């Protein structure tokens, strides 16, 4: 069992780049969609809120796997060309987690005290500046911890991409499994657990850094310097 | 022709749900005048200031500021409720200081002072910073320019908030119980600052306060509100020393007893 470890390790490690790529791409899309849909959820315009609400409920309320099959198998048949598996995966991960992220953004924006909004009104700042310069920077502090959770969930969801033959960690493991004995299988799954754990810890560490910076900017902890 | 008053309320009604807060309120404040609003809690003092700040809308009646409608605007010859852009345009002449300061915690003191002048008035960063430094000097906080608001005392925060409002060069300043949230020993400094602003500028000031002593020497006129109306209107020496209305007398007695 132990002699096979280096081989298994190097075989599975080759799946890490696609997993990381899917995670990073998924997170990027999630951030954009969360921001857009989340701000739309607090819009003054009813129609804008409604559109965003439909998006959120749809992607939150349907299976991620089925969404993936739609984008990978059905959509190409409808529009006529095949989207690359990794692209389809990132799209689904982003759309799905963006729906959860939108609720996080909405909640955090609404949690900023009304007084802050009124202070900005009293200075005649435009609605957009009020949001961008006053409300959002304070809301971001509230958003970061739940987003850490969301990103870790997204990382783990990348395993689903094995279903559309993205060559990521889990799929590579599955390729090896059929020809091996129990000991090696155990090693494979153990290595997979560790890979996800390490990646999740990296996300957590990165987000902690952002959290600390954001908190310092709103004076939550002793800050050495402050942006103006 | 007499100059148009700076602030005019005509027949203003305001209710929240079933409770009528202002009923048929008429009010006029001249340019440069210092008017203090007094009255029991819930009598609508804050609501009057919030209407001027467009944080609330009138249910009936009109408000004019500097000769222009604030609550309404002309469209095709008709007077219709103002939209956000119109209100913002007229409101630009008004500054407000709140009981709880409402400084932006995501910006330094300087950031708080230059944000609106650069974005709304179109000042360059250098111009805005220079003005901010002058104002901080005036409120006695020059050395706090790069400090974080959360690290200032309540009195200091309130003085920054006053400077922030002045940075917009308002014609009208609204002050809503701005010393009520302060520790007693910090109140005097803020009131001294207000007196200086009153003496050295021609800003029209509408002020809600329970500091009767301050109201007496700061105001040109005091209005007593009760039940959604102005029930007494007079110079501070008369209204605060020999009120005509029994309600005013009762209210002043209660306030003075409270300290
Ligand atoms: N947004 C609101 N919704 C409902 N009721 C309100 C609101 N704002 C004020 N009120 C009510 O209106 C009345 C007048 O309030 P306010 O103007 O704050 O009085 P004051 O400042 O004189 O104490 C109070 O009874 C208060 O409860
Ligand atoms: Mg009040």
From TrEMBL, chain A:
It comes from the Bacteria. Residues 16-203 form the ABC transmembrane type-1 domain. Gene3D superfamilies: MetI-like. The gene is ehuC. Pfam families: BPD_transp_1. Its main location: membrane. Keywords: Amino-acid transport, Cell membrane, Membrane, Transmembrane, Transmembrane helix, Transport. The keyword Isomerase does not apply. It is found in: Cell membrane. Belongs to the binding-protein-dependent transport system permease family. The chain crosses the membrane at residues 20-42, 79-100, 186-210. SUPFAM superfamilies: MetI-like (SSF161098). InterPro entries: AA_ABC_transptr_permease_3TM, ArtM/GltK/GlnP/TcyL/YhdX-like, Ectoine_EhuC, MetI-like, MetI-like_sf. This is Ectoine/hydroxyectoine ABC transporter permease subunit EhuC. It is a multi-pass membrane protein.
